[in-house]
Structure formats: structure tokens, C-alpha cells
Amino acid sequence: MNEIQHSGDAGHASKCIQYTIAIAHYNNGPAIESSLLSILNQIDDNYEVVVVDNYSNDGSEKVLERYAREGRIRLIKAKSNRGQARQIALENSKGKFILAHFDLDDVFNPMIKDLCSFYIQNYQGYAMRVISTRKVGYWQGKHDNFIAPRDLLNAIGGWSPISYGEYWDIFQRLIGEEIYVWIHADLIQEASAHDERKGIIGYCKYRFAIMRSDYKAGIETHGEKGLAAQESQESLGREAK
Q1: Whether the Cβ atoms of residue 29 and residue 60 lie closer than 8 Å to each other
Q2: Number of compact structural domains in the chain
Q3: Which domain range does residue 67 map to?
Q4: Residues 156-184: tens digit of each pLDDT
């Protein structure tokens, strides 16, 4: 079993946490400070930020450790891929609701609290997917975050232990439960261009990693079936109004 190290927990012990922002992280040195601050500067004591770090070694780990010492995040170090890290964050969360797929190579507009209020007033109990509208970074407007009850995520088994496509996989299972809605919102302000995926070698490495991840999990997230599932997800469930 992988060793899991916790830090930065004491400051949250007496707080009544309503929302957990669950983050998987590995080596986002250039963007991590601006990304974290874009989250932390817009939330209050109703929120906690749980970061599961896969033993980063590019200097970003020192930034995370500093914020953990200051009590602004809870930091868990664990050998993990993205799906595993998101699951570890879920298992160690205190909030009634989970805000997921907030990656630390993105910068977020100040609308997290507004999205949570909209969710509570209109779709509490559902999983609400937030599709960002701004065409920035590698995905050009196809960034996804979501809000869902922690109990619901536990009931469907949480995240699959895969490195890529873990968000499509969990959306597909939520759709199957008929408790899935989606909304377009300008949540992402800046996003990574993922230069490491550009060029023939970089792209081939990326595609190979995706195929290996799908093979290990026994699912298809990016092949023909996976892409068809992605395209159908906006037509399934219903759009949040």
C-alpha cells in the first residue's frame, strides 16, 4: 500500500465545512501560485481545499507545503495517478458537497461561491457539471468542473484509478443514475497550453499514455466509444437553467 502523508489539517478541525474543493496535483510549478490564489481568495470558512500531491519535484511541492503550514489548504502526499488522487481527496474530505476537477494549471474567475449558491438553490442532490465557455489553453473551452454531494460520489464508487479520462468516466456513471445536469459558465480565466503534448513525439507520448490508462482500467475514455460518450454527455441529463 502506498504511504500517504497529511499536513495542514489542524486549522480545519473546528470548522463546519460545507464544501470541499478536491484537487489532484503533480508538477504545476509555473502556474501553481496564481492558480491556488485564484481559488483561496474567493472562498470562506464554509470551504476547504484538499490537495493530493503525487510527490511533485519541480518546486511546486514547496508552495503547497507553505500553504499547508499556513492552514490554507490540507495537503496529502501520495503516490497516485489523477483518478487515484481525486479519490483520495474524496475519502479525506469533510464537506457535504465536493467541487472537483479544479486543476492547479488553471486560473479561476471569482464565481465559485455564486456557482455553489446556484447549485444549492436549484439542483442540490444532483451532480452539476460546469462547462467553461472561454476558449483558453489546450482544451479551448472544453474544461469541465463539477459539484456533487459527497454521499452521491461515494455511492457510485468515486473515481476510477486512471491517469486520463477519469472525468469522462465519472460523468458517464452519473448520467446512468439520472442525476446529472450541466451548465455553461465562464469559470476558467486562464489554462495551460500543455506544450509537452505538442509536436509528433509529445502527442504520441500523450496518446500512448491515454491508451495505457484505458487498458488498465478496462474502459474506453478517448477512443471511438469514448469520444461518442463525450459528445453525448451534453445531450443527456438536462441543462441547468
Answers
A1: yes
A2: 1
A3: 4-239
A4: 999 988 887 787 888 888 887 778 888 98
